[in-house]
Amino acid sequence: SAMREERIKKTKTVCTYCGVGCSFDVWTKGRKILKVQPQPESPANGISTCVKGKFGWDYVNSPERITKPLVRKGGRFIEVEWDEALKTVSDKLKDIKKQHGSDAIGVISSSKATNEESYLMQKLARQVIGTNNVDNCSRYCQSPATVGLFRTVGYGGDAGSFSDIASAGLVITIGSNTAESHPVLASKIKRAQKLHGQRLIVADLRKHEMAERADLFIHPKAGSDLVWLQAVTKYIIDQGWADEGFIKKRVNGFDDYVKSLDKFTLDYAEKVTGLSEDILKKIAEEIHRAHSVVICWAMGVTQQKGGSDTSTAISNLLLATGNYGRAGAGAYPLRGHNNVQGCSDFGSMPNKLPGYQDVSDDAARKRFEKAWDCVIPAEAGLNNHEMVEAIHDGHLKALFLQGEDMGIVDSNINHVQSAYEKLDFFVVQDIFLTKTAQFADVVFPASPSLEKEGTFTNTERRFQRLYQVLEPLGDSKPDWQIIQLLAQYLGADWSYQHPSEIMAEAANLTPMFSGVRYDRLEGYNSLQWPVEKDGKDYPLLYEESFPFDDGKARFFIVDWTEPTGTSGEYDLHVNNGRLLEHFHEGNLTYKSEGIKRKTPHAFIEVSPELAKKRGIKDGSTVRLVSPYGACKGRVVVTDRVHGNELYIPMNDNGETAINQLTSSEVDKDTDTPAYKDTAVRMEVLEVE
Ligand code: SF4
Questions:
Q1: Is 23 in the pocket of ligand 1 (CB under 6 A)?
Q2: How far is CA 17 from CA 423, 458, 580, in A?
Q3: What average pLDDT is seen over the chain?
Q4: Which of 143, 202, 466, 614 could be 211's S-S partner, Cβ–Cβ 3.0 to 4.6 Å?
Q5: Topology of the domain covering 2-61
Q6: So which cofactors does this thing need (predicted)?
Q7: Is pLDDT of 223 > 60?
């Protein structure tokens, strides 16, 4: 078999990094990855990939992989066999459940893991443990976008496909560093600009690459997007440019909505956002002139105290101008992780069963209870944010965390890490001994995407299959197998032989996925939900109706929530986001030698004005202090940032880790941390 292992082979997989969902063939010899080769039939990306998809795979063979279960004994991790680790965890969880009840246990799923694994995690929580305390990392990013869409159009996903973004007359991006965060999508927009004169408006604090390429780059004050969106919509309606035919036929609540816009005059918006009336009118005119409008948004919108409301305002604007249900139009929240869409879709949410069926919906809950022979609580469980607070106040005793370096990526990490120390029992399942895993009592070694089968769902709601490229390293196992083993040790009778059986069960219980079958996803075939029993899928949503009882969308009234902003000694605003080369805290990408050499650590962007005022330059070292913590880093002076605004790539888990600074403030509707609303003071440590 050594001979066979050394044969060169080619296997189709799906990128493990961002929500674009590039698929490609991976050529391997033994465990050596020879090359990544995208195919013309790759539905999301064709023959393109970015640097991460192409070169970001060294981590799979990293000597830092954990390959044996670890159990903490006398303050140290000891490698043990699976049986001992599983017995330790199941005994302890049973004990905690007996003493404190099911709701003393929380479960967090990974948006890097597959749909099938998200399904099993929430099934473990609901059926085996008996709690709705299950959530995933969209709580840190996209939950507000999903809420904004639920309120107005009914589905928590992108309105169409990348082809719709490419064929739009006008694309507006808000709070999205598209060229670095969703590189292959950004290339499609760049091509559309060149090929058919697509117009581009970019709203951001930072003059990044797409801002440079925009026909109009606007720089509203931090946290004020809702105000310019509402003012532009009001101006459009006042000019008689609203799509009255569409509204009359397809949307409820227009009159009350129009009234709610009264205060959002151009004059008011100019005061709040700093954008001139001329600019606001120009935006309205661009929207009016375009044959179709797509709005893409990301964390700059959602990670604010009013993130859900701003997402709602975006959707309202599209409804008012008839930009739903046709090619080249609609709302496109750009999902971050490869499977952050699917992780929520498959029920790792405290208030939703798979397919966004409410746990409070008796009929839906009963269907699952019957299939699983259990009782599911009718009340929502705790979300990630509430779990941290519940640990602090003593209600949550145990946490089972899958593939999420939450102690680095959650906001206010000093507060989060001190919660871990209070847990009675903490189990982490990951491929590396992350910062978070170091707090655990037991660590289960998982296998990354290349070592397993399953499906991911990209930002276009597109299901794609990944095939196993490599054998699991050492004693590591695919997450679905570990979750199943744990369920069995806890007394459940699960017996899935392959992820396709998990999907079959999920599809059977979830109308939205009823036609999702592995044989329909062979090779490069894909399906975009909702998928009907006969396999009909929906690349474009809302062509005929919106998924509400009367088939109509709804205007949803929202108001502005003022950001906390800067004040007193905390006089500088810190923004954060991605770098092209790295992903999030960098647990994967820092293990690629080439990428690491090129971009060895995060830095702090400072505007030329501020640098001059503080007497610092490129390469100076500064310390940033917020009321919640401090971080240290090297200065890069650049006009990408402006005035008293700083920018730190979020890709650092050491001394420049941004979440040492962020607060525990959250979006009021979803508890998503207001990462983008952070104020600090700056101390100069070394000019150079
Ligand atoms: Fe494609 Fe995103 Fe992966 Fe880059 S990181 S290859 S854009 S899926």
A1: no
A2: 31, 11, 11
A3: 94
A4: 202
A5: N-terminal domain of TfIIb (2.20.25)
A6: [4Fe-4S] cluster; [2Fe-2S] cluster; Mo-bis(molybdopterin guanine dinucleotide)
A7: yes
Which range scores top for mean pLDDT: 133-137, 321-325, 588-592, 657-661? 321-325
On the question of a cis peptide bond just before residue 530, with omega within 30 degrees of 0, the verdict is: yes
Place of tokens 């509400």: 548
For ligand 1, what atom is nearest to the CA of residue 458?
8
The residues pairing with 574 across neighbouring beta strands, listed in sequence order, are: 646, 678
In 3D, which of 653, 548, 580, 617 has the Cα closest to residue 319?
548
Question: Which residue has the least CA distance to atom 6 on ligand 1?
Answer: 53
| Placement of tokens 């809420």 in the chain | 147
CA dist., res. 96 & res. 405, Å (int): 24
* Atom from ligand 1 closest to the CA of residue 16: 3
Architecture of the domain spanning 143-333: 3-Layer(aba) Sandwich (3.40)
Class of domain 70-140+338-528 (CATH, top level): alpha beta
Each residue's pLDDT tens digit, 228-249: 999 999 999 999 999 999 999 9
Q: Does the structure show a pLDDT above 80 at 274?
A: yes
Task: For residue range 17-71, list pLDDT tens digits in order.
Answer: 989 999 999 999 999 999 999 999 999 999 999 888 998 999 999 999 999 999 9
392-434: pLDDT as tens digits: 999 999 999 999 888 888 888 899 999 999 999 999 999 999 9
Q: What is the ipTM of this complex?
A: 0.99
The pTM of the full predicted model, rounded to 2 decimals, is: 0.93
What lies within 8 Å, CB to CB, of 604 at 6+ separation is: 622, 624, 633, 634, 635, 636, 646, 647, 648, 656
Helix H, strand E, coil C: the string for 628-640 is CEEEEEEEEECCC
Looking at the CA of residue 184, tell me the nearest atom of ligand 1.
Answer: 7
Residue bearing tokens 């969880």: 93
53 lines ligand 1 (CB under 6 A): yes
Question: Would strands 199-203 and 32-37 be described as parallel, antiparallel, or unpaired?
Answer: unpaired
Mean predicted confidence (pLDDT) in 425-444: 96
Return the best residue to mutate from 13, 18, 339, 458 for the ligand 1 pocket (most ligand atoms within 8 A of CB).
18
Task: Identify which of 39, 111, 182 to mutate to test ligand 1's pocket (most ligand atoms within 8 A of the CB).
Answer: 182
Query: What distance in Å separates the CA atoms of residue 12 and residue 25, rounded to the nearest whole number?
Result: 4
Domain ranges for the chain, please list them. Answer: 2-61, 70-140+338-528, 143-333, 572-686
The Cα 606–Cα 642 span in angstroms is 8
Q: Judge if the beta carbon of residue 595 lies within 6 A of ligand 1.
A: no
Topology annotation, domain 572-686: Barwin-like endoglucanases (2.40.40)
Q: pLDDT category, 1, cuts 50, 70, 90?
A: very low
